[in-house]
Specification:
binds iron/sulfur cluster; alpha+beta; two-stranded antiparallel ribbon; 4 strands; disordered N terminus; Alpha-Beta Plaits
Length: about 100
């Protein structure tokens, strides 16, 4: 199924780049404002597809509605885009 995870990152990979410091960051990479996932609450039906696609950033509350934890690191951008694309109610957007 298309919503299954692809190319997952290993745990702890979100710190990529921090060991080498900002001077070692490739030019042009990661210079934009951090991406975040936004939920359109009236549209969200709490089915939890987003949490299945991106468990690194999305958990569900007791009613099945998403709880987004923080910004989307570069290594999770593809999965965040996939989570937004797979939301059956178009209730999840990736914005900068
Ligand atoms: S996949 Fe969409 S509708 Fe389902 S819980 Fe996530 S944001 Fe809400």
């Amino acid at each position: 199924m298309s919503w299954l995870r692809r190319g997952t990152s290993e745990p702890g990979a979100e710190g990529r780049g921090s060991e080498a410091g900002p001077a070692a960051r490739p030019s042009g990479a990661g210079e934009a404002a951090p991406a975040v996932l936004r939920v359109d609450w009236p549209a969200c039906q709490g089915r939890g597809v987003c949490a299945e696609v991106l468990p690194e950033l999305v958990t569900l509350d007791e009613w099945g509605y998403p709880i987004i934890r923080g910004e989307v690191d570069d290594n999770l951008l593809d999965l965040a885009r996939q989570a937004a694309a797979d939301c059956p109610h178009r209730a999840l957007r990736l914005v900068r």
